[in-house]
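I had to read the description of the data format several times before I understood it. In essence, backbone conformation is discretised, so a fold becomes a row of integers matching the chain in length. I therefore recommend that a typical entry be quoted early in the introduction. For illustration, here is how one protein appears when written out as sequence plus structure tokens.

***
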Amino acid sequence: MNRNRIKKSRSKIPKLLLKIEKMAQNWEDAQNTDTYLFLKNPKKAIWANLSIGISRGVGFVLGVSIIGVLVITIIGWLLARFVTIPIIGEYIAIIVKSVQEYLGK
């Protein structure tokens, strides 16, 4: 029984060695990845990540702004369609009259 285990473990060793060699080759091929860049030159990696973060932040702000403007425009258009303007005009007239009375004093 022990001989079978030894034979099986010996048959796994070449497979493990092949996997290790493949991993080593992949590591050598990955010289352009962030990990290698960070290990080789941390300042360059920090600068790259900072610029990527800033560009994502600016893109997020611009996207939210554009979508916000579209939503506000659509809501304004819908309100103009369904809300009667004279009611709003009456409220504005009351506010203007109150302000004029206050300034007159």
Notes: Residues 42-82 form the longest helix (41 residues). Residues 1-30 form one domain.
